Each structure stands twice: as structure tokens, then as C-alpha cells.
Amino acid sequence: MKRQLTVLVSIVTLTSLVLSACGSSTSAPPASETQAPGTPAPAQSTQAPAETAKPAAGSGKVEIFSWWTGAGEEAGLQGLIKLFKEKHPDIEVINAAVAGGAGTNAKAVLASRMQGGDPPSAFQVHGGAELNTGWVAAGKVSPLNDLYDQEGWKDKFPKDLIDMVSKDGNIYSVPVNIHRGNVIFYNKKLFDSNNVKAPTTFDEFFAAADALKAKGVTPLALGDKEPWAATMLFEDVLLGKLGPDDYNKLWTGELPFDDAKVKESLEIFKKMLTYVNKDHAARNWQDAAQLVAKGEAAMNVMGDWAKGYFTTDLKLKPNEDFGWVTTPNTNGDFMVITDTFALPKDSKDQASAKEWLKVLGSVEGQDVFNPLKGSIPARIDADPSKYDVYGKATIEDFKKSKLTPSLAHGSAAIEGFATQTNQIINIFVTQGNVDQALKSLKQAADANGIKK
Ligand code: GAL
């Protein structure tokens, strides 16, 4: 595991998600309206039975805020809630999840609640810029150093990860997982029957895509109804083209966004887009992953929550129904997406909220959550035997890979830049103007203070 991530996270320019989000309109629809098609409504309240209920510290209530609803997202959270209720039958759990992949709607709802003095007890936030230049810089979350000391956690999480959730010597959230963002999931039967091998370079990727296309198979499934999915594909191309060191330099401004290699990345990305399903703009990430699951497309570039969706929801078998490989030229690199939970400073029942954090930071909690979610445990002392072949391999990969932060998932740069990149990439997907996209990315980086 290498240290780039650490340096990077601390250098990212200070601009506040909260300040910008609070100044903007928060018109995201409520959970029931923002739900992915075909997914069940998020649970609203899971009150403990009356006979076991007894007053806990404060109001004896935890309201947990996340975007984990529906297929591929919800099972892990429900596993944690169940474990929490077994340990704390006297604390009421309110699941305040807001649907929408990557927090598309949840982040705006959260900003509005935080600003309006109605914070949840604990909220999902990515480690890195999203936490540190957002909520921590705005003074909205409590330091958790005491909790880490009390639970003996300081040497139970990788140091790089603790650095990602720390600012100025204080630790501000508890990581529940590590997702990998640079993965191609592919339909194994389609690959085998068409004699296609898992591609490891861009040339191999395009050769495989051509071979599949020639057989009438859609090579690449994309679901960019929520634009972050296309941004993810682009950031994986950037990582493959730039390599981890230069990729990391983008976020410190040491490598400008109008660099020739960024231009080449846009060209590769544009070429990839010629192999995607026609209805990509109408699909969310689950809908796109499902094309691969059903054999209607061959590959999908997605974070390994797609693996959770395949195994937990669709009951597919790794290495039989689906295979995986790192995205072109990123073998040895690990695009890190870490889901963590933070404690708002002015939430009502801090004692109960801390009990929630303790459960999700425990080995037991992590080993309940992550096998369902598709991620690996954030703790180094979790039990690998609880993980399937994909999980075990990813746990090992994480230890020896160069780590890079995801832009699409909040860690690499301030929220303002991530949002603008989503817009730029969204326009690029329809218009394909490389020079325009390059110029817009550079302007957005400058406007958001991403410079040397
Ligand atoms: C990411 C998050 C993952 C998963 C994904 C899709 O931002 O870290 O846990 O939920 O979005 O919604």
C-alpha cells in the first residue's frame, strides 16, 4: 500500500461542500420519489419491540442517513441494522436513506438538513475531500479521537485510511468498507463462448470489444442516467493512461487538466463510448450491470458494489457467471472508494449515535456488512474466510496496490469540481467534443482552486 493517497487528501484545496451546498437549492425529491425502478421503498422506522424498549442515553434513537436503498445497496445496511438491534434493543433505529446511486439525491438532502438544524444521528460520507474539505472544514462534525482510543481502533485501520478521514490531527469518521472502482465485470459465458479473454490493456480492450461486436454482442454496458457512472469510466481511463502518480498529481494541480495525456484519455473514453448500449442514458448502474448479468452485454465498468448486486441480489456465482479484471492498464492500482459515517456536531443523541459507529467499526459489523455489499473490510483484522473468492482476492490486492482516490465518489477533489466534472462528462458523452471537454475541465479545476 502506498502513500500517495495520504498526501493527496491533505493537499486538496479547501473549499466547502457545505458552504456551496447550503447556498444552492436542495430540490432533491424525497426517497419515495427518487427510488430506482423496481426497488423496494427504503425502511422508515424499525422500532424495537415495546417489551424490550427501555430509555437509553438521550432520546434512545439513531437516525442513519445514507443512499443505500434498493438492489445492490440495501442488504448490507440492513445487516448492520439487524446487528445493531441485537446489541441495542432499547435504541430505536430510523433508516433515513435517500435513493440515488453515489448519493445523487442524498447529498443535497443532507446539506439541507444540516443547514436547517435537523441533522441525522450519523451520515454516510466518503473519506477524503468530501469529508475533509466539506463537513469538517465547515465545522459540522464531531472529532472521534476519543472513540478511536476507547475502541482501540488506531492500529486496526490502515494508516492511509485513517489519514483520509482525518484533518489537522483529528479523526472525523469511521470507515465501514473499501470499494474498488477500477474493475471490469464481465459475463463469463459470453466471453468463453466468443473466445474472448479478459482485456488488460486498452488495445486488448478494443480487440475484445470488436470481436464481441462482430458477433452481435453489446461489448460494454453503461448506465449513465446518473452521470457519475460515465465519470467513473472516464476516471478509470485517466488512471490507465496517466498511471497512479500522474493521476494523483491532477488533484494537487501538479498536472494540469489540459495535459496531453488527459486529452488522449478523453479520446480513448470517446472510443469506448462507441461500444455501449444505445439506451445508456435511460439506465442507472443496476440496470447496466443487469445487462451483463443477463448476457445482454459483455462488460460493465463499475465499483464492486456491482459484485454485491450480482452475488447478494441476483445470486450469481463469481468465476462462473461473472468474471472480473482491473480496467485497462490499472493492474496494481486500486481506485479507493471508502464509505464512512460521521457524527454531526449538533445531532441530538450523540451517545446512541456513537453506539452505531461502534457497531460499524467493529470486526463483527464489518464482516456482516461487506460480504453482502461487495466491498472489503476497512479493518485489517477482519476475517477473510467470511469473503468469497472476489473478496479474498481484493483484500490481498489492496495490501499491495498503489492507491488512488475516486473523483466520481468524492475522495479526490472538492464537491464543486466533482459536480462540474459530471456535467462536463455528461455533455461530452452526447457531443464528443474533446477540445471543449478539455477546456471545460481546466476551467473547472481553476475555478475550484485545483492548482499548484
Ligand atoms: C458510492 C458508494 C457505494 C455505492 C455506490 C453506488 O458512492 O460509495 O457504497 O453505494 O455509490 O450507489
From TrEMBL:
Residues 1-21 form the signal peptide. Residues 34-53 have a biased composition (Low complexity). Pfam families: SBP_bac_1. InterPro entries: Bact_solute-bd_prot1 (IPR050490), SBP (IPR006059). It comes from the Bacteria. Keywords: Signal, Transport. Residues 25-57 are annotated as: Disordered. It is found in: Cell envelope. Belongs to the bacterial solute-binding protein 1 family. Part of a binding-protein-dependent transport system for a sugar. This is Probable sugar-binding periplasmic protein. It comes from Paenibacillus hexagrammi. The lineage of its organism: Bacteria, Bacillati, Bacillota, Bacilli, Bacillales.
